[in-house]
Amino acid sequence: MNLEKNYIDLCNSVFFDTYAFFEILKGNPNYSKYSSYKIITTKLNLFELYLGLLRDVDEEKAELEFERYYGFIVNFDGEVLKEAARLKMKLNKRNVSMVDCIGYSLARQLGIKFLTGDKEFEGMDNVEFCK
Known about the structure:
By secondary structure, this protein is an alpha/beta fold. The chain has five helices and four strands, in the order βαβααααββ.
């Protein structure tokens, strides 16, 4: 069991996949309704966000967004890793990343929705799909 769950308020929370962060930063109006939700994410998702902003924008923007979202990080345990590995095996025909599998598995463990617009997750249980 993830001990972090005992220390965070999960009411009105949703797991933000890296896809969601980028859509919010692009100003996608479909994501505006999630501005009132409490953000949950992992260090791995922030790595992807930082890398993408370094590549596509600049280091200043990458630093700004990294600092903005760093406080929403939740750690995960070995059970999440094992569930993520099983999920990756199950979805082996889809192009699903390790980071996405971990995020999805953590969201399930915490009992919150996994917010993404990644087509590989469309129609899956426990996913809040938004394009």
